[in-house]
Amino acid sequence: QVQFVESGGGLVQPGGSLRISCVASGSLDYKATGWFRQAPGKEHEGVACINIDGTTSYEDAGKGRFTATRDQVKNTMYLQMATLKPEDTGAYFCGGCGADYSPANWGQGTQVTVAS
Fold it and tell me: How many C-beta neighbours within 10 Å does residue 60 have?
């Protein structure tokens, strides 16, 4: 099983940008991988899923402001977030999505806090 480790979170002012990263312990080839987040007191929600064919699907949480990419040579994924809002605050996780969904393989997450 491929394990994931997220990093790069921090404190950002509203309207700011941040890029977070995720390193996988193995190949991302032939896997759908994406980003999830959990706001305080809420359930996990999907943000973006990079499909096996390379296309990316965005959930409402990430649509229009977030861009998910991956480097299959480095087994690394990125989430570029722009125009951040306080409601984007939460722990961000990466891992398999769609048919490869497996939260047991997520890392500890990386905390993103949007506040002035």
Answer: 9
Strands 110-114 and 44-50: unpaired
- The DSSP 8-state label assigned to residue 98 in this structure reads G
Going by the DSSP 8-state scheme, the letter that residue 29 receives in this structure is T
Give the integer Cα–Cα distance in Å for 68 and 43: 21
pLDDT tens digits, residue range 50-89?
A: 999 989 999 988 889 999 999 999 999 999 999 999 999 9
pLDDT above 90 covers what percent of the chain? Answer: 78
Q: Are 8 and 108 in contact (CB under 8 A)?
A: no
Nearest to 110, CA basis, from 78, 72, 74: 78
DSSP summary character for residue 63:
T
Q: Tell the residue number behind the tokens 């896997």, with chain if given.
A: 31
Q: In what order do the strands lie in the sheet with 44-50?
A: 11-12, 110-114, 90-96, 33-38, 44-50, 56-58
Residues constituting the chain: 116
pLDDT the model gives residue 62: 83
